Amino acid sequence: MWFRRDLRLGDQPALDAAAAAAGADGVIALFVLDPALLAAAGPARAAWVLRSVRALDADLRAHGSRLLVRRGRPEQVLPALVAESGAGSVHISADFAPYGKRRDERVRQALAALPDPVPLVATGSPYAVAPGRVRTKTGGPFKVYGAFFRAWAAHGWRAPADTDADAIAWAEVPPGEPLPADPDIGDAALPEAGEAAALAAWARFREVLPDYAEDRERADRDGSSRLSPYLKIGSIHPRTLLADLGPDEDTFRRELAWREFYAAVLDAWPASAGEYFRPELRALPYAAGEELEERLDAWARGRTGYPLVDAGMRQLLAEGWMHNRVRMLVASFLVKDLHVEWQHGARHFLRHLIDGDLASNQHNWQWVAGSGTDAAPYFRVFNPVTQSTRFDPDGVYIRRWVPELRGLQGRDVHEPWRLPDGPPAGYPLPIVDHAEERAATLAAYQTLRGR
Question: What does the pLDDT look like over 174-214, one tens digit per residue?
């Protein structure tokens, strides 16, 4: 059983398939430390992956086995391990991301080229409904979320698998390699990793789920599920959550469906991970050279002079996570106030977010930029002050992440540049004037439309 984005023992169809194929000969649980896995990851993201792998190893040890860790390219590691162990098959949960599909095809070919070929068997996926399963009436992929959601909900999904790790025969584990130590994450506070922690997080959120529709938009309230890091790494499966939802709890169900929609979009249009889904917007004017570097650096460090933007960017660096409403704001600010192309922001998010999922990340950025599927109109430009006063009205979130502003009262925390002496010492003036940049954005868009 080759674990990747499914670091759990419960509700694990691929592990069930491996156990059935192995019988009394037993299953080897493998994790491949692929050089590509952590190459672009920031410290918090890398630490989250490593901690999640260690948690899986601890769970396996509790069931009388352990996780075999091998380092290298999977198309080399897997055939070597098969030859060494005499395994009759390799089992995985299907990966639909572009890199994952290419990697798995290389492994499949390498296993087929062995003197005694063995199959690469894919069972299940990280999704309740695998990408490509839900189609339009004409047989094509969906481009609009609303239509996708209706078809997805009507299609339905399997119940959670009744995987029993105690009933599995585990094979003797060959020698492996230790996982590297966590990178230095400074004062970053990551959630507890592992399947048990994921289930506990779901149980906690289940108690406040009735307030989710109202609280989820408020940056100053702990109304988010905080389950996205666990879903990303596969410590919990979405069908486990869906099976527990009642018919009236549609708001959270719809949020889970967004994740599945974007996975299906990326599967159908893999180039959209880096290219504009609406390529005509590529012609808009964007910052370049020194101006690009300066603006991107100020945004990334939380030094734009707009408090809610800066609070969100600092939370990202401190926790490897950011409130979803604030994610939309900081993305809009980068693209439409600072005129930086969305790919720059998407890369920064993927480097630091512990829940950074390629499909959701890239297509949410395209949604904000107005260049994606089901796109918000390009002329929707988030006002950083309006968003701040609406979703953090008392400045609780801002004061938590921007200590320079903790002494301010009332509306001053949202617009510190309006104080008689300017913002407090150490906090910058706004990097740009929002009204001017909004006007420039809309003018550029109108020019593009007129071509």
Answer: 999 999 999 999 988 999 999 999 999 999 999 999 999 98
Question: Measured between alpha carbons, how far is residue 168 from residues 60, 164, 165, 185 in Å?
Answer: 11, 7, 5, 37
Which of 14, 82, 119 has the alpha carbon at shortest distance from 4? 14
**Residue 177: Cβ-neighbour burial (10 angstroms; 0-12, 13-18, 19+):** exposed
Residue 379 is predicted with a pLDDT of 75
Q: Are 4 and 100 in contact (CB under 8 A)?
A: yes
Same domain for 150 and 279, yes or no, is no
pLDDT surpassing 70 at residue 419: yes
Residues 332 and 395 in one domain: yes
* Type and span of the H or E element at 2: strand 2-3
Exposed, middle or buried, 260 (CB in 10 Å: 0-12/13-18/19+)? buried
* 120 shares a domain with 134: no
Q: What is the side-by-side order of every strand in the sheet holding 67-71? A: 2-3, 29-33, 67-71
The letter for the amino acid at 333 is F
The rounded mean pLDDT for the chain is 95
Q: What is the DSSP string of 283-314?
A: GS----HHHHHHHHHHHHHT-SS-HHHHHHHH
Convert the pLDDT of each residue in 350-378 to its tens digit: 999 999 999 999 999 999 998 898 766 67
DSSP state of 336: I
DSSP 24: G
The pLDDT value recorded for residue 375 is 61
Lowest mean pLDDT among 175-189, 308-322, 392-406: 175-189
Residue type at 49? Answer: V
Whether 343 and 243 have beta carbons less than 8 Å apart is answered as no
Highest mean pLDDT among 247-251, 276-280, 337-341: 337-341
pLDDT, tens digit, 9 for 90 and up, residues 16-33: 999 999 999 999 999 999
What range defines the domain where residue 334 resides? 273-449
68 close to 31: Cβ distance less than 8 angstroms: yes
Q: How far apart are CA 418 and CA 411, in angstroms?
A: 10
The Cα 325–Cα 410 span in angstroms is 21
346: Cβ contacts below 8 Å, ≥ 6 apart: 361, 362, 365
Query: 67: which strand partners?
Result: 29
> For the chain, what is the domain count?
3
User: What's the confidence (pLDDT) of residue 376?
Assistant: 62
